[in-house]
Specification:
With about 550 residues, the chain is of the alpha/beta class. It is built from 18 helices and 20 strands. It binds flavin-adenine dinucleotide (FAD). Flavin-adenine dinucleotide binds next to helix 1, helix 2 and helix 16.
Length: about 550
Protein backbone atom coordinates (compact mmCIF):
# COMPACT_ATOMS: atom_id res chain seq x y z
CA UNK A 1 0.00 0.00 0.00
CA UNK A 2 1.50 3.34 -0.94
CA UNK A 3 1.29 6.38 1.25
CA UNK A 4 -0.74 9.23 -0.26
CA UNK A 5 2.32 11.41 0.12
CA UNK A 6 4.62 8.95 -1.62
CA UNK A 7 7.43 9.62 0.87
CA UNK A 8 10.90 8.39 0.16
CA UNK A 9 11.96 5.49 2.42
CA UNK A 10 14.68 7.61 4.05
CA UNK A 11 12.42 10.65 4.59
CA UNK A 12 10.71 11.72 7.79
CA UNK A 13 8.74 9.01 9.55
CA UNK A 14 5.35 8.67 7.87
CA UNK A 15 2.20 8.42 9.95
CA UNK A 16 1.17 4.92 11.02
CA UNK A 17 -1.85 5.03 8.74
CA UNK A 18 -3.17 7.29 6.05
CA UNK A 19 -6.71 7.21 7.41
CA UNK A 20 -7.83 6.51 10.94
CA UNK A 21 -11.59 6.09 11.22
CA UNK A 22 -13.15 6.33 14.66
CA UNK A 23 -16.45 4.52 15.16
CA UNK A 24 -17.66 1.19 13.79
CA UNK A 25 -21.25 2.16 13.05
CA UNK A 26 -22.77 2.06 9.59
CA UNK A 27 -20.91 5.27 8.66
CA UNK A 28 -17.47 4.25 9.94
CA UNK A 29 -17.62 0.78 8.40
CA UNK A 30 -18.43 2.32 5.03
CA UNK A 31 -15.65 4.90 5.44
CA UNK A 32 -13.15 2.15 6.24
CA UNK A 33 -14.27 0.21 3.18
CA UNK A 34 -14.08 3.23 0.87
CA UNK A 35 -10.70 4.38 2.16
CA UNK A 36 -9.18 0.94 1.78
CA UNK A 37 -10.71 0.43 -1.67
CA UNK A 38 -9.23 3.79 -2.70
CA UNK A 39 -5.79 2.46 -1.83
CA UNK A 40 -5.18 4.20 1.48
CA UNK A 41 -3.85 2.38 4.49
CA UNK A 42 -6.71 2.54 6.94
CA UNK A 43 -7.62 1.51 10.46
CA UNK A 44 -10.74 1.85 12.50
CA UNK A 45 -10.87 2.31 16.26
CA UNK A 46 -14.10 1.63 18.10
CA UNK A 47 -14.93 2.10 21.77
CA UNK A 48 -17.32 -0.85 21.90
CA UNK A 49 -16.38 -4.52 21.98
CA UNK A 50 -18.28 -5.17 18.77
CA UNK A 51 -19.11 -3.44 15.50
CA UNK A 52 -22.49 -1.92 14.66
CA UNK A 53 -22.48 1.44 16.48
CA UNK A 54 -26.09 2.25 17.38
CA UNK A 55 -26.97 -1.39 16.66
CA UNK A 56 -24.26 -2.67 18.97
CA UNK A 57 -25.14 -0.44 21.93
CA UNK A 58 -28.95 -0.27 21.67
CA UNK A 59 -29.70 -3.95 22.17
CA UNK A 60 -32.71 -3.41 24.42
CA UNK A 61 -35.82 -5.52 23.74
CA UNK A 62 -37.84 -3.96 20.96
CA UNK A 63 -34.97 -1.93 19.47
CA UNK A 64 -35.63 -1.84 15.75
CA UNK A 65 -35.51 0.28 12.62
CA UNK A 66 -37.95 3.04 11.81
CA UNK A 67 -36.39 3.05 8.34
CA UNK A 68 -37.27 0.18 6.04
CA UNK A 69 -34.50 -2.40 6.44
CA UNK A 70 -33.59 -2.64 2.73
CA UNK A 71 -33.43 1.14 2.44
CA UNK A 72 -31.10 1.41 5.44
CA UNK A 73 -28.59 -1.26 4.37
CA UNK A 74 -25.65 -0.50 2.10
CA UNK A 75 -26.16 0.00 -1.61
CA UNK A 76 -22.52 0.02 -2.71
CA UNK A 77 -22.59 -3.68 -3.55
CA UNK A 78 -25.42 -5.19 -5.54
CA UNK A 79 -24.28 -8.66 -4.47
CA UNK A 80 -24.54 -7.69 -0.82
CA UNK A 81 -28.00 -6.22 -1.39
CA UNK A 82 -29.12 -9.42 -3.07
CA UNK A 83 -27.63 -11.91 -0.65
CA UNK A 84 -28.91 -10.31 2.56
CA UNK A 85 -32.62 -11.03 2.82
CA UNK A 86 -34.12 -8.91 5.57
CA UNK A 87 -36.74 -10.82 7.57
CA UNK A 88 -38.90 -7.81 8.42
CA UNK A 89 -39.67 -4.47 6.83
CA UNK A 90 -38.36 -2.89 10.03
CA UNK A 91 -35.69 -5.24 11.34
CA UNK A 92 -34.97 -5.76 15.01
CA UNK A 93 -31.58 -5.05 16.56
CA UNK A 94 -30.16 -8.61 16.47
CA UNK A 95 -30.73 -8.85 12.71
CA UNK A 96 -29.19 -5.44 12.12
CA UNK A 97 -26.15 -6.27 14.23
CA UNK A 98 -25.77 -9.56 12.32
CA UNK A 99 -25.98 -7.67 9.03
CA UNK A 100 -23.25 -5.18 9.97
CA UNK A 101 -21.00 -8.00 11.18
CA UNK A 102 -21.67 -9.81 7.92
CA UNK A 103 -20.59 -6.73 5.95
CA UNK A 104 -17.39 -6.43 7.98
CA UNK A 105 -16.50 -10.07 7.31
CA UNK A 106 -17.70 -10.20 3.73
CA UNK A 107 -15.43 -7.30 2.77
CA UNK A 108 -12.58 -8.48 4.99
CA UNK A 109 -12.62 -5.34 7.11
CA UNK A 110 -12.25 -6.90 10.55
CA UNK A 111 -8.46 -7.05 10.39
CA UNK A 112 -8.40 -3.25 10.13
CA UNK A 113 -10.64 -2.78 13.17
CA UNK A 114 -9.53 -2.36 16.77
CA UNK A 115 -12.33 -2.83 19.28
CA UNK A 116 -12.35 -1.57 22.86
CA UNK A 117 -10.42 1.50 21.71
CA UNK A 118 -12.20 4.59 23.01
CA UNK A 119 -10.38 7.62 21.67
CA UNK A 120 -9.67 10.07 24.48
CA UNK A 121 -7.29 12.43 22.68
CA UNK A 122 -6.68 13.44 19.08
CA UNK A 123 -4.12 16.17 18.59
CA UNK A 124 -3.07 17.76 15.30
CA UNK A 125 0.62 18.32 14.70
CA UNK A 126 0.96 21.17 12.25
CA UNK A 127 4.54 20.70 11.01
CA UNK A 128 3.96 17.08 10.04
CA UNK A 129 0.28 17.52 9.16
CA UNK A 130 -0.72 14.44 11.12
CA UNK A 131 -3.04 13.51 13.96
CA UNK A 132 -1.80 11.74 17.05
CA UNK A 133 -4.63 9.72 18.47
CA UNK A 134 -4.71 8.10 21.90
CA UNK A 135 -7.17 5.55 23.25
CA UNK A 136 -8.30 5.07 26.84
CA UNK A 137 -5.93 2.10 27.23
CA UNK A 138 -2.97 4.36 26.42
CA UNK A 139 -2.34 3.09 22.90
CA UNK A 140 -1.40 5.76 20.42
CA UNK A 141 -1.27 5.94 16.67
CA UNK A 142 -0.62 8.62 14.10
CA UNK A 143 -2.74 9.24 11.04
CA UNK A 144 -2.60 11.66 8.15
CA UNK A 145 -6.39 11.93 8.07
CA UNK A 146 -8.74 11.46 10.97
CA UNK A 147 -12.34 10.57 10.17
CA UNK A 148 -14.54 10.73 13.25
CA UNK A 149 -17.62 8.65 12.37
CA UNK A 150 -18.64 8.80 15.99
CA UNK A 151 -22.40 9.14 15.50
CA UNK A 152 -24.99 11.68 16.54
CA UNK A 153 -26.83 9.41 18.95
CA UNK A 154 -23.91 7.64 20.59
CA UNK A 155 -23.55 9.42 23.94
CA UNK A 156 -26.35 8.28 26.24
CA UNK A 157 -27.76 10.97 28.49
CA UNK A 158 -28.76 10.48 32.12
CA UNK A 159 -30.73 13.34 33.64
CA UNK A 160 -29.25 14.80 36.79
CA UNK A 161 -31.41 12.95 39.31
CA UNK A 162 -30.07 13.16 42.84
CA UNK A 163 -29.26 9.81 44.39
CA UNK A 164 -29.17 8.01 41.03
CA UNK A 165 -26.09 6.09 42.14
CA UNK A 166 -27.76 5.11 45.42
CA UNK A 167 -30.38 2.94 43.77
CA UNK A 168 -29.85 -0.63 44.97
CA UNK A 169 -31.58 -2.50 42.13
CA UNK A 170 -30.58 -3.11 38.53
CA UNK A 171 -30.25 -0.05 36.34
CA UNK A 172 -29.82 0.19 32.56
CA UNK A 173 -29.76 2.89 29.91
CA UNK A 174 -31.35 1.78 26.63
CA UNK A 175 -28.30 3.10 24.78
CA UNK A 176 -25.86 1.11 26.92
CA UNK A 177 -27.77 -2.13 27.09
CA UNK A 178 -25.78 -5.15 28.35
CA UNK A 179 -24.83 -7.95 25.98
CA UNK A 180 -26.27 -10.52 28.40
CA UNK A 181 -30.08 -10.77 28.51
CA UNK A 182 -31.93 -8.77 31.15
CA UNK A 183 -34.60 -10.73 32.97
CA UNK A 184 -37.73 -8.72 33.81
CA UNK A 185 -39.81 -11.67 35.01
CA UNK A 186 -41.42 -11.17 38.37
CA UNK A 187 -39.76 -7.77 38.81
CA UNK A 188 -41.07 -4.31 39.62
CA UNK A 189 -39.74 -2.28 36.72
CA UNK A 190 -39.66 1.47 36.04
CA UNK A 191 -39.03 3.01 32.63
CA UNK A 192 -38.05 6.66 32.69
CA UNK A 193 -38.67 8.36 29.36
CA UNK A 194 -41.15 7.93 26.53
CA UNK A 195 -39.11 9.00 23.49
CA UNK A 196 -38.33 6.73 20.53
CA UNK A 197 -36.51 4.11 22.65
CA UNK A 198 -38.89 4.23 25.61
CA UNK A 199 -41.94 3.58 23.46
CA UNK A 200 -40.19 0.61 21.81
CA UNK A 201 -39.20 -1.11 25.04
CA UNK A 202 -42.30 -0.40 27.15
CA UNK A 203 -44.66 -2.93 25.50
CA UNK A 204 -42.08 -5.70 25.73
CA UNK A 205 -41.31 -5.14 29.41
CA UNK A 206 -45.02 -5.00 30.19
CA UNK A 207 -45.37 -8.54 28.82
CA UNK A 208 -42.83 -9.89 31.30
CA UNK A 209 -42.55 -7.75 34.41
CA UNK A 210 -44.65 -8.15 37.54
CA UNK A 211 -45.31 -4.43 37.34
CA UNK A 212 -44.23 -1.66 35.01
CA UNK A 213 -44.33 2.01 35.96
CA UNK A 214 -43.76 4.45 33.12
CA UNK A 215 -42.36 7.86 34.08
CA UNK A 216 -43.39 10.28 31.36
CA UNK A 217 -42.13 13.87 31.18
CA UNK A 218 -43.85 14.71 27.89
CA UNK A 219 -45.86 12.42 25.62
CA UNK A 220 -45.06 12.20 21.92
CA UNK A 221 -47.27 11.85 18.86
CA UNK A 222 -46.78 8.11 18.44
CA UNK A 223 -48.21 6.43 15.38
CA UNK A 224 -48.02 2.77 14.31
CA UNK A 225 -44.83 1.51 12.69
CA UNK A 226 -46.91 -1.06 10.76
CA UNK A 227 -44.15 -3.61 10.57
CA UNK A 228 -44.43 -7.07 9.06
CA UNK A 229 -42.38 -9.86 7.54
CA UNK A 230 -40.94 -9.31 4.08
CA UNK A 231 -42.94 -11.85 2.09
CA UNK A 232 -41.35 -14.03 -0.62
CA UNK A 233 -43.12 -11.89 -3.27
CA UNK A 234 -41.73 -8.71 -1.74
CA UNK A 235 -38.27 -10.31 -1.57
CA UNK A 236 -38.56 -11.12 -5.27
CA UNK A 237 -39.50 -7.50 -6.06
CA UNK A 238 -36.55 -6.23 -4.06
CA UNK A 239 -34.25 -8.53 -5.95
CA UNK A 240 -35.63 -7.48 -9.32
CA UNK A 241 -35.74 -3.79 -8.56
CA UNK A 242 -32.26 -3.16 -7.15
CA UNK A 243 -31.34 -0.55 -9.77
CA UNK A 244 -34.63 1.33 -9.42
CA UNK A 245 -34.51 1.20 -5.62
CA UNK A 246 -30.93 2.42 -5.58
CA UNK A 247 -31.76 5.27 -7.94
CA UNK A 248 -34.57 6.49 -5.68
CA UNK A 249 -32.57 6.11 -2.49
CA UNK A 250 -29.50 7.79 -3.96
CA UNK A 251 -31.46 10.83 -5.00
CA UNK A 252 -34.51 11.25 -2.76
CA UNK A 253 -34.36 14.21 -0.36
CA UNK A 254 -34.64 12.17 2.82
CA UNK A 255 -33.23 8.87 1.53
CA UNK A 256 -36.48 6.90 1.71
CA UNK A 257 -38.57 5.10 -0.90
CA UNK A 258 -41.68 6.94 0.30
CA UNK A 259 -42.93 9.39 -2.28
CA UNK A 260 -44.40 12.82 -1.52
CA UNK A 261 -48.17 13.13 -1.87
CA UNK A 262 -49.49 15.80 -4.23
CA UNK A 263 -52.60 16.95 -2.34
CA UNK A 264 -53.15 19.35 0.52
CA UNK A 265 -55.64 18.57 3.28
CA UNK A 266 -57.84 21.38 1.95
CA UNK A 267 -58.13 19.61 -1.42
CA UNK A 268 -60.32 16.94 0.15
CA UNK A 269 -63.74 17.17 1.75
CA UNK A 270 -63.92 16.04 5.41
CA UNK A 271 -64.95 12.43 4.75
CA UNK A 272 -62.12 11.87 2.28
CA UNK A 273 -59.67 13.64 4.55
CA UNK A 274 -60.61 11.30 7.34
CA UNK A 275 -60.18 8.30 5.05
CA UNK A 276 -56.76 9.59 4.10
CA UNK A 277 -55.80 10.04 7.75
CA UNK A 278 -56.85 6.40 8.29
CA UNK A 279 -54.67 5.39 5.38
CA UNK A 280 -51.75 7.29 6.90
CA UNK A 281 -52.34 5.66 10.29
CA UNK A 282 -51.98 2.29 8.57
CA UNK A 283 -49.00 3.25 6.43
CA UNK A 284 -45.42 2.31 7.29
CA UNK A 285 -43.02 4.37 9.42
CA UNK A 286 -41.84 7.68 8.00
CA UNK A 287 -44.39 7.70 5.18
CA UNK A 288 -46.49 9.57 7.74
CA UNK A 289 -44.13 12.50 7.33
CA UNK A 290 -43.11 12.16 3.71
CA UNK A 291 -46.26 10.93 1.98
CA UNK A 292 -48.77 12.91 4.03
CA UNK A 293 -50.82 15.88 2.85
CA UNK A 294 -48.43 18.55 1.63
CA UNK A 295 -49.64 21.02 4.27
CA UNK A 296 -49.75 18.75 7.30
CA UNK A 297 -46.30 19.66 8.59
CA UNK A 298 -46.50 23.31 7.60
CA UNK A 299 -50.04 24.53 8.15
CA UNK A 300 -51.22 24.89 11.73
CA UNK A 301 -54.82 23.96 10.91
CA UNK A 302 -53.92 20.87 8.88
CA UNK A 303 -51.49 19.77 11.57
CA UNK A 304 -54.09 20.26 14.30
CA UNK A 305 -56.58 18.09 12.41
CA UNK A 306 -54.08 15.26 12.09
CA UNK A 307 -53.14 15.62 15.77
CA UNK A 308 -56.80 15.46 16.74
CA UNK A 309 -57.13 12.31 14.64
CA UNK A 310 -54.23 10.71 16.56
CA UNK A 311 -55.68 11.90 19.88
CA UNK A 312 -58.96 10.20 19.01
CA UNK A 313 -57.09 6.99 18.27
CA UNK A 314 -55.41 7.19 21.67
CA UNK A 315 -58.78 7.75 23.35
CA UNK A 316 -60.21 4.76 21.44
CA UNK A 317 -57.35 2.47 22.40
CA UNK A 318 -56.69 3.44 26.02
CA UNK A 319 -59.55 2.33 28.24
CA UNK A 320 -58.89 4.73 31.14
CA UNK A 321 -59.89 8.21 29.91
CA UNK A 322 -57.61 10.03 32.40
CA UNK A 323 -54.65 7.90 31.32
CA UNK A 324 -55.48 8.54 27.64
CA UNK A 325 -55.44 12.31 28.18
CA UNK A 326 -52.02 12.05 29.82
CA UNK A 327 -50.70 10.21 26.75
CA UNK A 328 -51.79 12.97 24.35
CA UNK A 329 -49.21 15.71 23.72
CA UNK A 330 -50.20 19.29 24.56
CA UNK A 331 -46.88 21.04 24.09
CA UNK A 332 -46.05 20.41 20.44
CA UNK A 333 -47.55 19.68 17.07
CA UNK A 334 -46.93 16.52 15.01
CA UNK A 335 -43.48 16.67 13.41
CA UNK A 336 -42.14 19.33 15.75
CA UNK A 337 -40.15 16.56 17.45
CA UNK A 338 -38.90 13.40 15.76
CA UNK A 339 -42.09 11.30 15.92
CA UNK A 340 -41.67 7.81 17.36
CA UNK A 341 -43.27 4.84 15.65
CA UNK A 342 -44.81 2.16 17.80
CA UNK A 343 -46.16 -1.35 17.99
CA UNK A 344 -48.91 -1.97 20.57
CA UNK A 345 -47.72 1.01 22.61
CA UNK A 346 -51.00 2.59 23.64
CA UNK A 347 -52.53 -0.87 24.15
CA UNK A 348 -49.89 -1.51 26.83
CA UNK A 349 -51.57 1.01 29.12
CA UNK A 350 -54.66 -1.22 29.32
CA UNK A 351 -52.69 -3.94 31.08
CA UNK A 352 -53.37 -4.30 34.79
CA UNK A 353 -49.64 -4.39 35.64
CA UNK A 354 -48.89 -1.05 33.91
CA UNK A 355 -49.15 2.41 35.46
CA UNK A 356 -48.18 5.87 34.31
CA UNK A 357 -46.58 8.65 36.34
CA UNK A 358 -46.95 12.08 34.77
CA UNK A 359 -43.79 13.99 35.67
CA UNK A 360 -45.51 17.29 34.90
CA UNK A 361 -47.72 16.61 37.93
CA UNK A 362 -45.23 14.84 40.14
CA UNK A 363 -41.61 15.44 39.10
CA UNK A 364 -38.90 13.05 40.22
CA UNK A 365 -37.36 14.39 43.42
CA UNK A 366 -34.60 11.83 43.57
CA UNK A 367 -33.70 8.19 43.86
CA UNK A 368 -33.20 6.18 46.97
CA UNK A 369 -31.76 2.72 47.48
CA UNK A 370 -35.30 1.35 47.14
CA UNK A 371 -36.70 3.26 44.20
CA UNK A 372 -37.88 6.57 42.75
CA UNK A 373 -39.18 9.43 44.85
CA UNK A 374 -41.79 11.92 43.67
CA UNK A 375 -44.12 14.19 45.64
CA UNK A 376 -46.31 11.08 46.02
CA UNK A 377 -43.60 9.27 47.95
CA UNK A 378 -41.10 6.56 47.06
CA UNK A 379 -42.14 3.77 44.70
CA UNK A 380 -39.92 0.71 45.17
CA UNK A 381 -38.39 -0.99 42.13
CA UNK A 382 -36.16 -3.95 41.34
CA UNK A 383 -35.06 -2.56 37.99
CA UNK A 384 -34.95 0.90 36.41
CA UNK A 385 -34.60 1.55 32.68
CA UNK A 386 -33.31 4.96 31.65
CA UNK A 387 -34.78 5.70 28.23
CA UNK A 388 -33.59 9.27 28.51
CA UNK A 389 -31.96 9.79 25.15
CA UNK A 390 -28.64 11.09 23.97
CA UNK A 391 -26.42 14.15 23.76
CA UNK A 392 -27.35 14.57 20.12
CA UNK A 393 -25.09 15.77 17.33
CA UNK A 394 -21.97 17.00 19.07
CA UNK A 395 -21.84 14.71 22.13
CA UNK A 396 -19.27 12.21 20.88
CA UNK A 397 -17.06 14.67 18.99
CA UNK A 398 -16.75 16.97 22.00
CA UNK A 399 -15.73 14.06 24.23
CA UNK A 400 -12.93 12.85 21.97
CA UNK A 401 -10.28 15.31 23.16
CA UNK A 402 -9.87 16.84 19.71
CA UNK A 403 -7.23 19.61 19.52
CA UNK A 404 -6.55 21.31 16.23
CA UNK A 405 -4.17 23.98 14.96
CA UNK A 406 -2.43 26.08 17.61
CA UNK A 407 -3.80 24.05 20.51
CA UNK A 408 -7.39 25.06 19.79
CA UNK A 409 -9.76 22.49 21.22
CA UNK A 410 -12.92 21.55 19.37
CA UNK A 411 -14.82 22.24 22.58
CA UNK A 412 -13.60 25.88 22.46
CA UNK A 413 -14.20 26.25 18.75
CA UNK A 414 -17.76 24.97 19.15
CA UNK A 415 -18.50 26.56 22.52
CA UNK A 416 -21.52 28.33 21.02
CA UNK A 417 -22.58 25.40 18.87
CA UNK A 418 -21.00 23.52 15.98
CA UNK A 419 -19.52 25.39 13.02
CA UNK A 420 -19.04 23.24 9.95
CA UNK A 421 -18.86 23.13 6.22
CA UNK A 422 -21.15 20.46 4.71
CA UNK A 423 -21.34 18.91 8.18
CA UNK A 424 -17.98 17.38 7.30
CA UNK A 425 -15.14 19.72 8.28
CA UNK A 426 -14.49 22.65 10.60
CA UNK A 427 -11.89 25.41 10.19
CA UNK A 428 -8.62 25.19 12.14
CA UNK A 429 -8.85 21.40 12.27
CA UNK A 430 -6.99 20.31 9.14
CA UNK A 431 -7.38 16.74 7.94
CA UNK A 432 -10.27 16.09 10.33
CA UNK A 433 -13.58 14.94 8.86
CA UNK A 434 -16.75 13.93 10.68
CA UNK A 435 -19.32 12.37 8.33
CA UNK A 436 -22.56 11.56 10.10
CA UNK A 437 -21.95 14.36 12.60
CA UNK A 438 -23.80 17.62 13.29
CA UNK A 439 -25.22 19.64 10.37
CA UNK A 440 -25.81 16.52 8.31
CA UNK A 441 -29.12 16.18 6.54
CA UNK A 442 -32.21 14.60 8.09
CA UNK A 443 -33.96 11.38 7.18
CA UNK A 444 -32.68 7.89 6.53
CA UNK A 445 -29.26 8.16 8.13
CA UNK A 446 -27.04 5.84 6.07
CA UNK A 447 -28.05 7.52 2.86
CA UNK A 448 -26.82 11.03 3.66
CA UNK A 449 -23.98 9.83 5.89
CA UNK A 450 -22.93 7.71 2.92
CA UNK A 451 -23.01 10.79 0.67
CA UNK A 452 -20.64 12.45 3.11
CA UNK A 453 -18.32 9.44 3.23
CA UNK A 454 -18.23 9.40 -0.57
CA UNK A 455 -17.29 13.07 -0.59
CA UNK A 456 -14.58 12.59 2.06
CA UNK A 457 -13.09 9.70 0.10
CA UNK A 458 -13.23 11.56 -3.21
CA UNK A 459 -11.54 14.50 -1.50
CA UNK A 460 -8.69 12.33 -0.22
CA UNK A 461 -8.21 10.91 -3.69
CA UNK A 462 -8.23 14.46 -5.12
CA UNK A 463 -5.55 15.52 -2.65
CA UNK A 464 -3.38 12.52 -3.33
CA UNK A 465 -3.55 13.06 -7.07
CA UNK A 466 -2.24 16.60 -6.60
CA UNK A 467 0.44 15.81 -4.07
CA UNK A 468 -1.24 17.61 -1.16
CA UNK A 469 -1.36 16.11 2.27
CA UNK A 470 -3.34 18.68 4.26
CA UNK A 471 -6.78 20.10 3.69
CA UNK A 472 -8.81 22.50 5.73
CA UNK A 473 -12.03 24.33 5.06
CA UNK A 474 -11.77 28.10 4.60
CA UNK A 475 -13.41 30.00 7.50
CA UNK A 476 -15.63 31.86 5.01
CA UNK A 477 -17.06 28.60 3.72
CA UNK A 478 -17.63 27.39 7.26
CA UNK A 479 -19.44 30.63 8.10
CA UNK A 480 -21.57 30.38 5.00
CA UNK A 481 -22.72 26.83 5.69
CA UNK A 482 -23.25 27.46 9.41
CA UNK A 483 -25.27 30.61 8.71
CA UNK A 484 -27.38 28.59 6.28
CA UNK A 485 -27.99 25.98 9.01
CA UNK A 486 -28.97 28.70 11.50
CA UNK A 487 -31.32 30.34 9.01
CA UNK A 488 -32.78 26.93 8.16
CA UNK A 489 -33.64 26.38 11.82
CA UNK A 490 -36.49 28.85 11.47
CA UNK A 491 -37.82 27.04 8.41
CA UNK A 492 -37.47 23.58 9.89
CA UNK A 493 -40.59 21.68 10.88
CA UNK A 494 -38.67 20.61 13.97
CA UNK A 495 -39.07 23.08 16.82
CA UNK A 496 -36.72 24.23 19.54
CA UNK A 497 -38.46 21.74 21.81
CA UNK A 498 -36.73 18.97 19.82
CA UNK A 499 -33.45 17.34 20.80
CA UNK A 500 -32.31 18.35 17.32
CA UNK A 501 -31.66 21.72 18.98
CA UNK A 502 -29.81 20.15 21.91
CA UNK A 503 -32.65 21.24 24.17
CA UNK A 504 -32.65 18.02 26.20
CA UNK A 505 -29.13 18.65 27.53
CA UNK A 506 -28.92 21.31 30.27
CA UNK A 507 -26.44 24.06 29.41
CA UNK A 508 -25.99 22.99 25.79
CA UNK A 509 -26.17 25.89 23.32
CA UNK A 510 -29.60 25.84 21.69
CA UNK A 511 -28.50 25.52 18.07
CA UNK A 512 -30.06 23.63 15.23
CA UNK A 513 -27.96 20.52 14.68
CA UNK A 514 -29.40 19.31 11.37
CA UNK A 515 -29.32 20.69 7.87
CA UNK A 516 -32.84 21.67 6.91
CA UNK A 517 -31.72 21.97 3.27
CA UNK A 518 -31.30 18.19 3.48
CA UNK A 519 -29.61 16.08 0.88
CA UNK A 520 -30.49 18.41 -2.04
CA UNK A 521 -28.51 21.21 -0.38
CA UNK A 522 -25.64 18.84 0.38
CA UNK A 523 -25.58 17.58 -3.21
CA UNK A 524 -25.71 21.13 -4.58
CA UNK A 525 -22.84 22.30 -2.39
CA UNK A 526 -20.73 19.25 -3.16
CA UNK A 527 -21.28 19.92 -6.87
CA UNK A 528 -20.24 23.52 -6.32
CA UNK A 529 -17.09 22.43 -4.47
CA UNK A 530 -16.10 20.07 -7.24
CA UNK A 531 -16.93 22.53 -10.03
CA UNK A 532 -14.90 25.24 -8.29
CA UNK A 533 -11.93 22.94 -7.79
CA UNK A 534 -12.28 22.85 -4.03
CA UNK A 535 -11.88 26.61 -3.59
CA UNK A 536 -13.80 26.33 -0.31
CA UNK A 537 -10.80 24.47 1.05
CA UNK A 538 -7.18 25.35 1.64
CA UNK A 539 -4.81 22.58 0.59
CA UNK A 540 -1.16 22.36 1.45
CA UNK A 541 1.86 20.17 1.75
CA UNK A 542 3.29 19.65 5.17
CA UNK A 543 6.84 20.89 5.82
CA UNK A 544 8.33 17.44 5.51
CA UNK A 545 6.40 16.24 2.49
CA UNK A 546 8.11 15.57 -0.81
CA UNK A 547 7.59 17.88 -3.79
CA UNK A 548 4.32 17.42 -5.70
CA UNK A 549 4.27 15.29 -8.83
CA UNK A 550 5.47 17.18 -11.89
C1 LIG B 1 -32.47 3.18 19.03
C2 LIG B 1 -32.12 3.91 17.78
C3 LIG B 1 -32.82 3.64 16.61
C4 LIG B 1 -32.50 4.30 15.44
N1 LIG B 1 -33.21 4.01 14.31
C5 LIG B 1 -32.89 4.62 13.16
C6 LIG B 1 -33.58 4.33 11.95
O1 LIG B 1 -34.49 3.52 11.91
N2 LIG B 1 -33.21 5.00 10.83
C7 LIG B 1 -32.20 5.90 10.83
O2 LIG B 1 -31.91 6.45 9.78
N3 LIG B 1 -31.53 6.18 11.95
C8 LIG B 1 -31.84 5.57 13.11
N4 LIG B 1 -31.14 5.87 14.24
C9 LIG B 1 -30.01 6.81 14.17
C10 LIG B 1 -28.68 6.02 14.11
O3 LIG B 1 -27.83 6.54 15.05
C11 LIG B 1 -28.11 6.05 12.71
O4 LIG B 1 -28.99 5.40 11.84
C12 LIG B 1 -26.77 5.34 12.52
O5 LIG B 1 -26.61 4.29 13.41
C13 LIG B 1 -25.64 6.28 12.62
O6 LIG B 1 -24.50 5.56 12.30
P1 LIG B 1 -23.08 6.12 12.62
O7 LIG B 1 -22.11 5.09 12.18
O8 LIG B 1 -22.94 7.49 12.07
O9 LIG B 1 -23.06 6.28 14.20
P2 LIG B 1 -23.22 5.19 15.32
O10 LIG B 1 -23.98 4.04 14.86
O11 LIG B 1 -23.69 5.90 16.53
O12 LIG B 1 -21.73 4.69 15.58
C14 LIG B 1 -20.77 5.52 16.16
C15 LIG B 1 -19.74 4.64 16.83
O13 LIG B 1 -18.68 5.50 17.24
C16 LIG B 1 -18.17 5.01 18.46
N5 LIG B 1 -17.49 6.08 19.15
C17 LIG B 1 -17.99 7.27 19.54
N6 LIG B 1 -17.04 7.99 20.17
C18 LIG B 1 -15.92 7.24 20.15
C19 LIG B 1 -14.60 7.44 20.63
N7 LIG B 1 -14.23 8.55 21.26
N8 LIG B 1 -13.71 6.44 20.45
C20 LIG B 1 -14.04 5.29 19.80
N9 LIG B 1 -15.28 5.06 19.33
C21 LIG B 1 -16.20 6.02 19.50
C22 LIG B 1 -19.41 4.54 19.21
O14 LIG B 1 -19.06 3.60 20.20
C23 LIG B 1 -20.25 3.97 18.10
O15 LIG B 1 -20.06 2.59 18.00
C24 LIG B 1 -31.46 5.24 15.44
C25 LIG B 1 -30.77 5.53 16.62
C26 LIG B 1 -31.10 4.88 17.78
C27 LIG B 1 -30.34 5.21 19.03
Amino acid sequence: MTSPTGRAPDGPRPPDVDVLVVGAGITGIYQLYRAREAGFSAQLWEAGEGVGGTWYWNRYPGARFDSESYTYGYLFSEELFREWRWCEHFAEQPEIERYLNHVVDRFDLRRHIRLGAAVTAAVYDEPSGTWTVTAGDGRTTSARFLVAATGVLSVPYFPDVSGRQDFGGESYHTGLWPTTPVDFRGKRVAVIGTGSSGVQIIPLIADEAASLTVYQRTPNWCTPLNNGPVTPEEQAHLQEDFEAIKEILDTSPAGFLHQPYDRASTDDPPAERRAFFEKMWRSPGFSKLISHYTDVLFDEGANAQWCEFIAEKVRDIVADPAMAEKLIPRDHRFGEKRPPFVTEYYETFNKPNVSLVDLQETPILGMTAAGIETADGVRPFDLVVWATGFDFGTGALLRMGIVGRGGLSLAEHWSEGPKTFLGIQTADFPNLFFPGGPHAAAGNNPRYNGDQVDFVTDTLVYLRARGYDAIEVEPAAEQRWTAMIDRGAAKSTFGEISYYFGTNIPGKPKKYLLNSGGRPKLFAMIDEVVTNHYEAFRMSRSADSPPPPA
